[in-house]
Amino acid sequence: MVELFENKTDYKVIGTRPVRHDGIEKVTGRAIYGGDVKVPGIIWGEVARSTEVHAKIKSIDTSEAENLPGVFAVMTHDDLATPGIETTRNGLSDIDRDFFNIMAKDKVLYKGHVVAAVAAIDRNTAQEAVKLIKIKYEKLEPVKNVDEAIAPNAPILLEDLVGDHLGEPVKNTNIATHFRHEFGNVEEGFKSANLIVDKEVSLEMVHQGYIEPHNATAIWNEDDRITVWSSTQGSFGVRDQTAKFVGVSPSNIRVNYSEIGGGFGGKTKVYLAPIAAILSKKSNGRPVKIIMDRPSVFEATGPAPGGKVRVKIGVTNNGKITAAEAVIRYEAGAYPGSAVNAGAICIFACYEIPASRIDGYDIVVNKPKSAAYRAPGSPQAAFAIETVIDEICDEKGWDKIKFRLDNAAKKGTRRGDGVLLEKVGFEECLNAAKNSDHWKSDIGQPEEGKVRGRGLATGYWMNGGGPSTCDLMLMDDGIVMMNEGSADIGGTRASIAMQAAEVLGLSAEDIKPTIPDTDSIGFTGITGGSRTTFATGYAAYLAAESMVKQLKERTAILWDTDENDIEFNNGTFTSKNQELKISIKELAGNLGSTGGPVSSTASVNMAAGGNGYAVHICDLEIDTLTGKTDVIRYTAVQDVGKAIHPSYAEGQIQGGVVQGIGWALNEEYFLNDDGSMANSSFLDYRMPTSLDLPMIETIMVEVPNPNHPYGVRGVGEVPLCPPIAAASNAVKDATNKRILDQPIKPSRILKAIL
Asked: What's the CA gap between 657 and 398, in Å, rounded?
């Protein structure tokens, strides 16, 4: 936890809209992404992926591939190191499960699971070599969803897994973890209720849908130092996981930053870097590049978990919630580690509930190991609880915003996991929605054969903290060079630089941000969880404060006075009697005579990023003959704490909404009978485009986070939380039929209304 701040409002840089520092390189095509990396002598890697969904590996014959002209190396799981495998109460740790996820050893657990890899002179040769690898399988029955996974006599995916079920070890199970959060007297709460609504929703896995596929380039040098380029949301995560899986110290690996063409949580995992490194070693140090094709991205990288969520809520006739209960069952994929813990934190966080019980289940199934996707675990939970809230309001005839206001979470509210909330802006968001033009407007009359509906939903994300580092260096011309360790996937170079500029009284353009390699900056966590502008921004703030202190000392030397007699404001140092004045830019040219260059660094480890809330309104139109749904108006209200760069904050909100609408209405992992994915392309995986949607209207509420000097709360996660529920509630309003399964696609709508 950081100190509490009284946030000011008279900013010079914060809240403005400068051109982002990396904008020119990106719009001109000069920016270097992972796939663009070229080094002398580069060769290509390719992986052999399982054609089976669930099978034992009986044998792997790589001889023909090894003998193919142009092939330098072939590897299997046996070529990876196995240092320091850690165990937890329920078996291997999640990070060590990744060791088997990047390349299977004895068993494949989903179609696309990597089994072997080759390095060759060019990509075509590598692809031909992969085809020559002969793999024999013993097919096993696939487990395709949570119901199949927990059924009696279900096939066991991980024979070594010992489930942690409310603290008790359980063998021969597909339930990796069962935990419970509980406070208050839930049974008495339900007894005192005049109405109880109990609903269960189901969801399919969905993909983040980033444009740039996963890639990695690695060079294993003669001194056993390894250089890596990778499309990632966290260079230090790539460094540490690669080190673990190839058997070297993290200090022996340097991960270079490259631009990232989308991630949304999906690029927090490591898939290719260790493989590229081993292939480089076996190819006598030649650089090896691997780029996934699109089907592999869908079939073998981490989607958001599907599953089932049941919510039960009791209310009195005067509109107060008395108790709530939730059962969350998420698909972990092939290995434990779904976002069920986060889902449990978020599910009741929008409401003041005197008694609640939450049961969470992390369940392994024969699908790719799940990964984060903007507010991981929360959208699924929001779908469930906002469905129940909507049903309560419909049943009682209550105003849907008033009921939420009467039960809204506020400072001092106990979250479902027991944590007490600090200052939050949920009530402000609800009031902004109530007073919005959208909520007050008439939905309009549809054409013949169509119906319209309006849905409202809320969402929550706790926003992340964690470690970050920032370095500042003052140049002779008054420009400040900034190094920061966070991957930029949403304009964070600009938002971090702006915070340093605010402290220094400089313009945003006077700060030149750079993201260096892992040898050149202190440890910094992943860009994810809405932590970056908050945590790395706070590091920039502290580094800038340190620079101001140093420059005050230099000014004292220059003026031959006591530094206590010097004041600093808006980029200028003055003596208390105002007789002397010098700007940072002027002082920069005099550093040589006062002691030499000035630089500063700051590292932080933030406990929390400030709770984030959103309220969304969705209008849609349904063709009753085809079931086709069109979103015709959408407004997203969100507490952003303080919008450092309003344009980027708005863009984050709009992007999250678009992804959420796709999740609600179209997107899913559609499985064949054998458990393989049938729609592993952008042609068949139906993501919405700009042609499918109206302009997303945004209302940014600013309730400053007291744990940050500029009130930052984080923006990027929360907008994905309400859309599934908002669209679902709109469908109910339009058709008077409640559809509890995602996606709410035309076939399901027609089945409900016909």
From this structure: 26
Quickly count helices (H) and strands (E) in the chain. 20, 30
Tokens of 616: 């969304």
Decide: helix, strand or coil at residue 592.
helix
Query: What is residue 478's predicted lDDT score, i.e. its pLDDT?
Result: 97
Task: Give the model's pLDDT for residue 155.
Answer: 98
> What is 23-31+465-606's CATH topology?
Aldehyde Oxidoreductase; domain 4 (3.30.365)
CB 74 within 8 A of CB 281: no
* Chain centroid offset of residue 479 CA: 33
How is residue 711 annotated by DSSP? -
**174: Cβ contacts below 8 Å, ≥ 6 apart:** 143, 149, 150, 154, 156, 157, 158, 161, 363, 364, 365
DSSP-based three-state secondary structure for 56 = strand
Q: Cα–Cα distance between 699 and 720 in angstroms, integer?
A: 15
Q: Quick check: 572 pLDDT over 70?
A: yes
Q: Residues near 440 by Cβ (< 8 Å), separated by ≥ 6?
A: none
The two tokens of residue 481 are 């060079």
Listed in sequence order, the DSSP H helices in 677-744 are 723-735
153-179 average pLDDT score: 97
pTM of the model: 0.96
pLDDT tens by residue, 103-127: 999 999 999 999 999 999 999 999 9
Integer angstrom CA distances of residue 526 from 288, 482, 541: 25, 18, 19
| Sheet strands (E) in 624-733 | 629-639, 696-701
Sheet holding 134-139, edge to edge: 107-108, 55-61, 134-139
Q: Which long-range contacts (CB under 8 A, 24 or more apart) does 569-575 make?
A: 569/505, 570/12, 570/505, 571/504, 571/505, 571/506, 572/505
